[in-house]
Every structure is written in structure tokens, then in C-alpha cells.
Amino acid sequence: MLGFVIRRLAWMVVTLWIVFTVTFFLMRSAPGGPFSRERKTDPLIEAQLKRRYHLDEPLIQQYGRELKNFVTLDLGFSFKSVDFSVNEIIRQGLPVSASLGIFALVFALVLGLTAGIFSAVRRGSLLDAGLMTLATIGIAVPSFVIASLAIIMFVFIVPIFPAAGWGSLSQLVLPALCLGAPYAAYIARLTRSGMLDVLGQDYIRTAYAKGLPRGRVIFRHALKGAMLPVVSFLGPAIAGILTGSMVVEQIFAVPGLGQHFVQAATQRDYTLCMGLVMLYTALLYGMNMLVDLTYQFLDPRIKLD
Amino acid sequence: MTATISENPTAPPTTERYAALLKEAAAIQGVSLGRDAWRRLRRSRTAMIALYFLIAVALLSFFTPLLPLAAPRKIDLKQQYQAPHCWPIMVHSFQSQADDIEPDPVGSGFGELIPPFNWMLALRLKVFGNWQFNALMGSDKLGRDLLSRLFWGSRVSLVVGLVATFVSLLIGVSYGAISGYIGGWVDNAMMRGVDILYSIPFIFVVIYLVTVLSEPVIKSRLEDWHINRITVFFVVVGAIYWLTMARVVRGQVMSLKHEQFVEAARTIGGGRWRIIFRHLVPNLWSVIIVYLTLTIPNVMLFEAFLSFLGLGVEPPDVSWGLLANEGIAVITPIKTYWWLVVYPGLALGLTLLSLNFLGDGLRDALDPRMKNK
Amino acid sequence: MSARLRNLFPYFGLLLLLAALGWAVSFGRLPPADMTFCNGDEVKSLDPAVSQSDSEGNVLRALYEGLCQYDPKTLEATPGVAESWDLSDDKLTYTFHLRKNARWSDGSPVTAEDFLWSYRRFFHPGTAAVYAEEFWYISGSKTFSESKVAVGNAVEVELQDKPDDGLEPLYGKLLKIEEPKIKDPDEAQAALAKVFTVEIGGKTRRFTRGDRPAAPDIEGCKHVLPSFDTVKVRALDPQTLEIKLDNPTPYFPQLTGFFAMYPVNRRCVQKYHLPDWVRPENIVTNGPYTLQLRRMRDRVRVVKNPNYWNQKQVFLNVIDILPIKSSTTALNMYLTGQVDWILKLPAPVVPVLLAANRPDYQPQAVLGTYFYRINCSPPDPKATESDVKQQIRRALSNVLVRRALNMAIDKQSIVDGVKHGRDQLARSLVPPKMNEYMHHEPALCEEFNPLAARKLLAEAGYPEGRGFPKISILLNTDEDHRAIAEFVQSQWQQNLRIKVGIQEKEFPSMNDSCERLDYDVCRAGWFGDYTDSNTFINVFKSDNGSNQTGWKSETYDELLRQAHHEPSPARRSQLFHDAERVLMDEMPIIPLYFYASPEMARTYLKGWYPNAQTLHPYIGMSIDPAEKKAVLAREGK
Question: Which ipTM was obtained for this model?
Fold first, then answer.
């Protein structure tokens, strides 16, 4: 297993390097640099500005410098938010996004698993149909619509949560619910089908035949097998929750990274773009690796390559 | 075939015998995999309802220019925020403009239409004259008819979903099939490539590309080739959503490539590409169809997401994502023009719901374990 | 992998999840602020010289104080750091008397030297202050900002090894300027090749700008500027600052309260440099508040400055400034009592609020005009016929086309339909509200007349819009702007039969395109920076950086020049009117409507008054917690 981890980490380095290179040249090749907004009065001032960000050097030298800085985790100053360094922006935003994401994920898991198990156990019942329709709606409606309706519901009609902002637990609940809702729906559907698959297998029949109580069979024997598709979904889900938070962050005015993500891309804040892309790439890769590891814990038949 | 011959080596192969064999085979062939699946699909009520609904949506959106709807781009500030009113169903308010549409489509509120849609519009004006549906779904902030905008918006949304998915299909299937069939280090390298691409935050890439491509310099160049942002969008999205498809197809091809029919094709001298695309890919269609019904909703949601960021279709074009986004702008605690969010939400939601249900049904129906059940 | 370990795994997972959850909810809690408001957008910088938007102004106003301040109702100049000022008889020299008890937040006194140094930094070309040209009223400042040096004059030279914002020059006398033999056609590039011979401390040294001198005896330098002594700002003593202007400028005291002109602390800036000096732990300010916390996209928190001279009038101890972009989110927060004042409302609620006649929403006309810029830059004569961009330039540089575009828009419908009667139809650049401050008779552009518009377009060579290239309206992403653009789009398509697209960008990118003249038609808004017509008319002077239309008129410039020298208010007004007439005849802009204040502020927020510039000093603002509770309770929150 150690070998697996080491191999994957090596690949991670390669991945990061490739993504870095592609992002670097993609951004530099776009027309209109990040400073085109500064007035063109004095070329020296522009040069000075460019020097601050080392844009005056040949491209390959810039690349080398940026790569070196990236390796030492110094991401430089943001091009647009001139008072902040990229590291600072990430340091401020990441904990917020992470809190929101973890909350959303826990919510999605708890709700999704519960609904999925209930549906599967009571297959064909009204409860099953209701839960699954709800889950499909959760997938089918855009998150910004869900968020807006949730605000009207839980802020104004039944005033239990604050409208927006950040800083207290109550402000976290609504955005986390809206962010987690579609994933809860996916997880519910996956759990249900996984559960149904497992429940039809011989070892479950054996367990019942041995006279084990139903709850024990479901939670001790079946659930672990049914979790497999859920776990493999978690990798992309975490990625989605991390990057997908931008809608929710904007509607609920949450100071996370999601909003920076969009702004950096639309305003061509090279350094911030680069920092965020690399951060997300590392996170995604890490999560996918974790998922593969988890897989092995859950299913002894799976061999890591 | 070999078995048949070896069974009875002495009997001379006569034409009658072959004819009989063929006849027998034709009788057995009766239940193909496809027909069997269709039979099972028909038994699932939700999947069938979903299918009919989708067919209806597709037909309606294709034939939208024929329907007596208000002009989707016609702004009438006096009709602002009109709540839905259903009586009378048809009104006469469409002020002629039959001549408006023929000579110059720009000012007509329908936009420029390419054949055959402009013929449809002309036909509609001949048939219905100045009659059009009342504001059955109310009107928006500029007094435009929501019903009409929903219909015209469906065209953009559906096309985006279909084309992007098709692009992803094309890339994904070819990539996966080639990788799986060739195997060895090529497969290894190609799959590592997919792994790396999986780790890129693609939302970012799309936003960045869409931003860059809507720069005037590039945009005007693209417009010379009649490419607008929405075209760019589905190509980009299609080029991204192929990753999962490639993985799935590769897995399938790996398991299929040692099957006898592939060996047979190879024995008779079928080339590598011929085997991949003529023999292997057609055997993957069940996977592909299921995947299709699940990718289209994703793409449509993504389009809505881009509309939310202001990077979706450009007015006066309209899409469901744009409508939903305009809808949430009018949900405020002080005043809610509910129809502006409910109807686009419903249209989008029901379509995606149907696609999901259909996808579920198809997956069950095409499941080989369910064969002949 | 042992089975035991595998069985433990779910518990590991659970533990991990719980730990993460614990961490997620354990973020620090801030005590609530006394007053909170939604500021439209994230502030880019807290350096006054770098700042450029009103949302930055809203933060800077809390942190700094200029020579003068504004009266919260009338916007007249009131004493700030200067307790009084005198104006010479020729109306050109202001003498500001600084108060002795004005202090920086580190306790040191605010002196005339501080202002002198800050103004030098503000006008310095290296700072590239966006607002610098708005303050070229001060004698010599323009020459300094544009680094125009002449032989024989005193100059200052900044060497390469000094920090970028370091203002530690060498002083000397310019002896000679050598131009290169082959002159670069690009003027700016040519300037870089000049060699300056300067006598410094008795020695003759040669300089060229940039870091790649052409010869070994030439030194590279950053700037060769006229000595700042040529800028007519003098610190006569620590408490007296004398400023000489080129022309009579009746609104100058008001201008000294403008946020870009706030003083910065020299020791702080020179010790930490940009951007570190604006960090909460380093920044030294002289305003009613000091910076406590700045988290991007979350808030700027300012707390009462214990060293501020007028502490008695500062009633709110802590103010939170939230960068909320979405007006719906802001409204939600306002209605639930999370914030006390919002700057913007979502359009659909406006008619409802107006009908309800809420005491906290009484929109007033402000000094602001909403208009469309038209890119009038001429086509490139070398370009081919088929080049779409050049076709657009050819069309839009035609005054008949621009007039037709203006006449084809039913502005009343925009005002009634999109703005719900809150704002007022515009047919001139200067808003009628200006009449409250000075007599200004507006020069009007043509009225809505689709038939005449079509005729004009035909006259321009595009009958029925035939042959007219597709143009696009550029705007920053916003529901209201989009609605207006869609309306204008349909009007032009209907009335002129031309094809129009809409392009949306984030505000900075839109601004960027405007400055580069890389647009066809662009949405714009201009708010007066002071209560004088000049703040509007001056924008479209040929060399003004905010012109951004490519439109140049010598007549216009000349009329403005005369107005600037004109001491008689009546004649000055007439000159402004004449200039506006030129503008409205040539239509590089299409005025659409005059803004009404979109703000909404709670009635319990005392000391907040609606005014013509939506500019609200924090001094004197207060909130009675009991009243706040009562008001919110009445609304059921």
C-alpha cells in the first residue's frame, strides 16, 4: 500500500507540473494582458508594473521563475487585488470554503445515505417513490434556484436563519444545505441502487438464513457493500462541492474561494488564477487518491495497482 | 458454424440445407437485444412517460415557429410583470407585421431565422394571422411573453445539451475504444492523460475560455465564421465531459476485445480501425445511450450555471438557464413574481427529471442480467 | 490488510468526519458591529492615491480625513484637518490653517508637511493615481504629473535602486536634453531614449530613463521630474498650508475632502511600502476610525480612532463594511436587520417600495447621469472595405448616425418601465439637480422621434438600416443594465432596423475596454465629484482620461478653457452651456436618464442624510440600540 501511495504521489507531481504548464501558457496566450486597464501614459510605469510581476522577462524565464516560486509555495501578489498576496487570499478563503464544503458533505452523506437505505429497504413503497422523486428533483433543479427559494422559505416565511453573511453557525446552515442538496440526492440514488444490488446477493441471503436480525444484516453486511459506488462518487463530489460553491457563495455572501475563482478567471488575474487552479488540482488529486485508498478498505477484492 | 460442420462431416452441404439453417436462424433471431430492452423499457411506466414527454418537448421546440406564440423578443413595457391570465386563450394583439417579417426579420421580434424555420414562421402567419396565445404564463420585466420565451428558449437549451453531449460522445468513445483496444503502453499513457485531466478544475477552464473567446478581437473573428459564444460553449463543454465516457468505453472494449467475433474479424483480415469502429463500437451502444441521458442534464445545468455568472447565451437569444436566472432576480422578500421562476424552473426541472428517469429505465432495460426477464 | 483494521475503518471515517466538522464550526466569532452597511463591491486598495471607485471612497472616508470634510446634508466644505482657510482676492491662493490637535492614529501630529508629502506622492507619475488629473487645478501639478522638464529648471532625479514608491530623489539643475538621432515614432518610447544632463551637488551626471543605459557614462533612472517646488503647494509652517491654483476654482475646498486627496502617513508608507503599509497591523491613518480587520469578500471592520481630534462627534464604535455585490442579497440582509444601510436595490422591488412610501426609502435626485458612450474614433484609412470593425468605426464616427441612435430610443419608456418613475429622463449631460448649486441651463439633445431617426440614418447612407454593420452594446453584468440594453437593442432594431448585440463583462474588464476604446457602444454612469457643472463637462475634454469616446472637439476644449479662466459665475455658466450644446449636437454620448439615489437606510440610523452625491460622512452618525430593536420588532424580525 505504501508503494501505491508513493506512486500516486509521484504522479501527482507530474500532474501538477502539467497543469501548471498548460495553465501558464493558456493564460499568457490570451489577448489583452492583466494591465491593459492601466493608463497608457508612461511606458516606464507600465514597465515598472510589469517588473513587479516579472512580466518583462522572456516567457520561458517567467515560466521558470513562476515554477520555482510555485515549488516554494510563494504564489506572489494578486494582479487585481493589489493589497493582497495570493497566499493571503487563499489563507483567508480556504478555511471558509472548507468549512462550508465539509458541512455540505456531511449533510449530503447523512441525508443521502438515510434516504437511500430507507428507499432500498422499502422498495416499491410510496416512501421509496417519494424519496426518489425528491432526489431526482434535487438533481434536476439548478442550485441557484434552490438557494433563492430556500431564502424565501427559511429567512422570510419561517425566519429561522439569517439571510447571508459569515461568522456564525446559523449563517453556515442554509448555504451548506443548498450546496449539499444535489449531492445528497445523488448519494441517495447511488445508495439505493447499491443496496438493492447487494441485498439480492447470496451472502445476504445467508445472513438472513442464519437468523440475524434485519437491522444487523442491513447495517453490518449490506451497507458496506452498498457504500462502494457512493465512495467512488465522493471523489468527484468533493471536487464539485469545492468548485461548485461559487453560486452559493455569491447568493449567501460567503467569503470563500468560489467567488475568487470566477473573478480571477474573468478578470485574468494571472497569479490568483494560477494559485487557485493549482490548489484545486492538488485537492482533487488528493481526494481521488483518498477515495482509491478507501475503496480498498471497503472491498478486499480490489487490488491497488 | 464450425461446430455444425464438424458434427456432420459426411453430409454434403446442399443449398436446401443451408436455406433451412438460415430459416431456423432467422426464427431464433426474433428477440434481439434491442427489442428485448425495448420490451422491458415499455414495462416501466415512469420511463415511458419520461420518453413521451421528451419527445413532445423536442417536437414542440422544433416546431416552435409554427405555433401562434407572441414574438419572444418583442418588448412592451406596458405589459411589464403581467401575471398569467388564461382567458381568452387567444388574443388578437399581434399587430400584423406580416410584412415586417418578410422583408426584414430584424425588427420583428423573432430574430433572424434560417430555413426551414422562417418558412414555418411564414406559414404560421398565414394560418393564424394576427392571432396569438394570450400571456398564459405572464410576462417579464420588459413585458415579453414568458410562454413564448420558454418555447424559443427550449431550442437553445436542447441544442446546447444535445450538441455538447454529442461532441463528448465522439471524443470519449473514440478515445476510450482506441485506448482499450490497443492496450499496452498506449493504453497506459492515454489513461494517465485522462487521470491528469480529471484533476483539472474544469469549471475554471470553461469560464476562462468563454471569457477569452468573448473578447472583441477574437469574437469578431469567430463571428466572421458565424460562430457565437454558445457554439463555443458546447464545443468546450463537450470537450470536457468525455472523460467518464472514455473510461467506461475503455473498460467495455477491454472485455470485448477477446470475444470471438473480434477474433473472427481479425482472422478475415479486418484492420485495426475497422475492428474498433465497425465491430466494437456498435456493441457499446447500450452504455452510450445510458450515458447520454445522464450527460445531457449535466450540460444543461452547466449552461444554467454559466447564465447565472452572466456568461451564458447573449440577449436577445434566450435559454432556460437565462430565464431561470432572470427568475431568481425577481424573488425578493418584498415582491415575488412567482411565474418568472416557477415556469422556467419547471421546464428545466421536468426535462432533466425526464432525462434522469429515462436514463434509469434504460439502464435497467439494457442490463444484460435482466435478459429475457 | 488485516480484517481487524478493515472493521475499524468505518469508525476512523466517522472520527475524521467529526473532527472536520468540529474544525469547520470552530471559526472565530466577531462581536457585532454598531453599524453595518453593504458596500457595492470589494475595495481594491486602501491607499487613497491608488483608489478609484466610490466603494473605496466609502471605506477611506472612515479611515482618513482631508483638509476639509463635507456637510452631510448640503455637501458644503466644512473644516476637517484644516480648522479654517482663507482665499486671496484674486481667488487663486488658498491658505489652510491646520488644527493643532489633529493626530495620526499613532499619536503623532498631522502637519502641513504631511499634506505636502502626500500630495507629492499623489501627483507623482510613478503613483499613477487615477484621479490625479482631476486635481490639476493646483499650479504646476500637471507639469509635474506629466514629467515635463525644461533645460535650466530645477529637476529631481529618482535612481533605479530606490523602491518604486520611494520618494527620495536627487535634486539638481537640468543642463541639457539630448534627443536620439532617429526618433521613435511612438512618443512614449521616444521619451525613454532621451539623455538628461543634470548638475547635482556640483557634479554633472547624465541620466536616461529605464535600466538599460546606452553608454557606460549614462546612469539609468526611474524619473526625471520638475522639482516638486514648482508645484505651488507650500508648508509655511507645521500648521499652515498654502495652495495656489491656475484658475479660480470655487469648489476647491470641497475637492480637498475628496478621498483621493486624503493625506497618508509618510513614516508608515516609507517603512512598509505598498502593499504592506495598508495592512491592519501597519496602517496609520488620521480619520475618525482605524482599520481593525480586512478580510476579502467578508468585511472591512473599522473601530473608533482614540487619537482623532473630533472624537466627541464619533458615536459609532465599530462599523462593518460588507462587500456585497448582489443587490438581492443586500436587500435580504437589510430586511432581516443584519445591515442598516444598503447602496443599491434590485429593480423589481422599486415600484413596490415606492408605492409603500416607506420612511426609509425616499429616493432623491442625485448628481448622476446614466448614458451610453459611443466610440467615435475614426476608421483606419488603410483598412479594407470588408473589415467589420472598420465598417463600425465608419458608421459610428458619423454624427448623423449618432444622432439617429439617440432619437431612436424612447427614453421615457426606460424611465417609466425599467426605472419605475424613480429616475428622470435625460436629454443633457449635466443633471438638473446641478441648478441647486449653480445656475446651469442645460443644452438639450433631440427628442425621441423614430421617423426622423430613420431619415437621418438614410441620410448617413444606411436607408432602412441597410449596410449598417452589427454593433454591440457593452455593459457590466447587472440585471438593470441588461434590461436597459435589451430595451435599447429592441428600439434600435425596430426603429432603425439595425442589428445590435449585447456584451457583458465584469466592471473592471468593461472599464478596461472603454479605456482602450475597444467597444462600439458602452454603458456608463457619471457622478459629480463636486457641486459644479465642470465635474460633468470636463469629462469630455479631448485629453481627459475619462472621455473614453475618442471624440475630440477643439471648440469644446476652447469653450472649457475660457470657462476655467472666467471669474464671473454667470458668464462661466453660459460657457458651460455652450460647451454642452456642442456635445449634444455631436452626440458622442447618449444621455438616458438622471439617477435618483438608490440607497435605503434605516430611520434609526441618525445623522445619515440623503444628498446629491450619495456621500455620507460617518462623523455624527449614531444608532440608538433601543430604537433599532423597536423598529425591527415592528417588522417582526
Answer: 0.85
